[in-house]
Structure formats: C-alpha cells, structure tokens
Amino acid sequence: MKFRDYYETLGVARGATEAEIKSAYRKLARKYHPDVNKESGAEEQFKQIGEAYAVLKDTEKRAAYDRFGENWKNGQDFTPPPNWNDGFEYSDGGFGGGHPGYGGGFEGDQSEFFESLFGRGKHRQGGRGAHARQGMNFKGQDHHAKVFIDLADAYNGAKRTIALHMPVQDASGHVSTQERKLDVSIPKGIKAGQNLRLSGQGGPGVGEGPAGDLYLEIEFHPNPIYRVDGKDVFIDIPLAPWEAALGATVNVPTPAGSTLELKIPAGTAAGRKMRLKGKGIPSAEPGDLYVVPTIVLPPADTEARKEAYQVFEKAFDFNPRTHLKG
Amino acid sequence: MTQTNITWIEGAVVENEVHMTIIELSHASRTPEDLIMTWVSEGVLSPAGSSPEDWRFGGDSLRRAKTAAHLTHDLELNVPGVALALDLLEEIAQLRARLPRED
Predict the structure, then answer these.
(1) Residue B80 to residues A155, A325, B72, B77: CA-CA distances in angstroms?
(2) Considering the entire predicted model, what is its pTM?
(3) Averaged pLDDT for residues A106-126
(4) Which residue on chain B is closest to A294 by alpha carbon?
(5) What is the pLDDT of residues B5-22, one digit of tens each?
C-alpha cells in the first residue's frame, strides 16, 4: 500500500489552519471538478483532493493521521502500525469528498490507504434502507454509471456487455462491492451526454418497494478523425494546394463505415465548411456531417521540389499580407 | 449443440423518450424535491406544466439536475451560482466541440 501525503495533495503546510485547508481544498476542487474539468485525470485528482480534505478537515482524523510524522512521502510503501489509532474515535467513517455517481464507481472511491486507516465509507444514502422500520416500502436506489461507446455505435447501434461494481449490503449491514454484468443494447442515434434508463436495474427495493432504475450516461471514446457537437459531426479533410485551387474529388469516410465521394470546388479556402445534410448522427431529424478543408503544403525537401515552389512564386504576384499593410 | 441466448436489455433514452415527474427526478438525481423546486424558480430547470404536481421534466433535465447536484454538494455553490455555472459549462462545451483537435 502506498502512503498518501494529504498535505502535499492539498498543497498546504503541515501546520496549516482549518481555514487554510478549506480554502486550498475549495480552490483545487473547483479546478479539478469533473463536471468542470474535462481533461483526463481530473476526476482522479478530484477524488484524491476530496479524500485529503475528508481527513484534514476532521480534527480527530487529522490528529490520528499526524501521528505518522512528516517523514512519510507520497507513494512510499506503507503498512499502518498495529493499534495506531488507539484513543481516537471517529463519529463517522464516511468519506465526504465525492458525490455518488461518478464514472460508474458507485462507492468505495477512496484509496486503499484511506480505507485501511479510517474504514470504508458508509454507503451514502444507503442509510434509508438500513433505518427503515419493518413494514415500510421504498423504491430501491437509482444508480448511475458512465458507458463509453464509439461514434460508430451511435450511427449503427451496438450491443455491449458492461461490468458494474455495485455495493451490496449483507444481513449484518456490511457493505461489499460485487461485480454485476449487464447485456445492454445501445440504440442507434444516441448522443454523448444522453442517459439510457434501464428500469428496475438499480438498487433493490425495500420491503415491497420496486427496484430502482439504472441510468447509463453515454460518452464517446475520443476519436482521432471526427469531432462531435450534439448530433452534428465534423471531419477535417486535408487538401493539397492544387486540389484546393483547381478542385478535386475526394473520398470522405463516414462514421457509419461507408465512404462518400465529395466534389471539392475550385478555389476552396481552408476552413470553409461543406455540409453533408443528414449524414450526422441519425435520428428522426438527423444531424449533418461537416467537412472542414485544411490545406497541407508538401515539403520542399529536394532541389526539384524547391524549384517547383520557385516556379510557383514567379507565376503569382501574390502577397497574402496586404491587409496587414506589411 | 449448445446455444446461448443473451437477452439484451433495452433502455429508454431519457432525453428523447422520458418525461420525469418531480418525484422521479428527485430519485434519479438524489436531490430533495424542494431543492428541485428552487432550481425551477431560478430557471436551472424548465419543466412543462404549471404546478409541481404536473411538472414534466424532459430533454436534458436529468443531466442538468445531476450536474447541479454535484456542484451544490462538492463546491457548496448556492442556487444562483449553480445556475450561472451550468450556463457557462454549456457554452464551454459548445465552443470546445467546435475546436479542432489539438494532437
């Protein structure tokens, strides 16, 4: 198990005041919040910040953590000494950093390090079931998970077997994580950010209550060729200078897997979008596929090619910077 | 000869086919109903229908409610702050989608 230096995570000194810790946490939480920061790694960072704050904001936990002294470094191999936390009592083993429903991780987002020291967080909101009096009926919890699909799946539909890690509470109230596999049909036309509701696939109901629902939030894997904005799809098509100037016919691959022939008119400027109506993500009102031309210069890497550029230069009296008065 | 039959679960696309009541939205976004009512009054969510009992939340209400719940819980934003953040996040997402990929 690796040691976690919570002070380093929040970027505060070991002697930081509660106010300093709170302010450092807030600043980092705003920066790395996964709803705000779409960089990869932001979510992991956010969880670590939340975990650090859960310990350092709590006087008891912080005092216990401080017992390890300052010689430990982030990432060092670590085993808690026996009875290390004698004399400390935590009012709540819970981990207050994250919000349920991120990235398919329902609970248990805290590190092994945190769990070994402070125990596994209580299943947030799971308390209702535990405290329900006999004879009460509740609908089970709704669960959320994220599913990544390819853009092609949105064009063609797809069938996916997804593995979910669900918290399961046994009779004694102990919560453990179990893997559950679901075979899900992803409908054609689904867009990034949309949610698929699978009725009755969430948490079990309490008493006679029905099971909750499972919501799958759809995201697209990053695609090296296409960009997606809602139901519209964009593709850059590189052209040679003579193709842009004289016109050409180019092959445009569509996300659905087919190829379209597209006529590039003579005098096409870089960035001048061409719309292929209805070739975006399909639906009753399908999106459009936009072809964005870019112009690529071949390298002047041999004498003959340099000469070709010189001929080019002589043929034109061309100053592309006239508007700069340069 | 063995044959394996897999039953593929069909879901409903929330944004197209589902119109949630306030109870369903509260359950799905794990948000108390009174906070949802405050969000509606601040324009964070715009359900069809005139009173909370017959409100129907369609389109991207679930996504917005989930983000609003995260921001409220994680960053302790107040309601106008959540409303502003949601609008700005939406604008950023649109602008980002139009940017050429930088790689």
Answers:
(1) 38, 48, 11, 8
(2) 0.72
(3) 59
(4) B100
(5) 677 888 888 888 889 999
Query: CB-based contact (8 Å) between B62 and chain A?
Result: yes
Give dist(CA A92, CA A90) in Å, integer.
5
Inter-chain contacts counted by CB atoms under 8 A, chains A and B: 102
Nearest to residue A114, comparing CAs of A176, A52, A71?
A52
ipTM for the assembly: 0.81
Give the closest-approach CA distance of A199 to chain B in angstroms.
Answer: 7
Residue A236's pLDDT band (cuts 50, 70, 90): very high
Phi, psi of B54 (to 5 degrees): -110, 20
B97 neighbourhood in chain A, CB within 8 Å: 227-230
Is residue B14 within 8 angstroms of chain A, CB to CB?
Answer: yes
Does B45 contact A at CB distance below 8 Å? no
Which residues, 6+ apart, have CB-to-CB distance to A233 below 8 Å?
A151, A226, A227, A255, A279, A280, A281, A287, A288, A289, A290
Phi, psi of A79, deg, nearest 5: -130, 125
Chain A residues closer than 8 Å to B67 by CB: 35
B63 at interface of A, judged by CB pairs closer than 8 A: yes
* E-assigned strand segments in A187-296: 195-198, 214-220, 226-229, 232-239, 248-253, 259-264, 274-276, 289-295
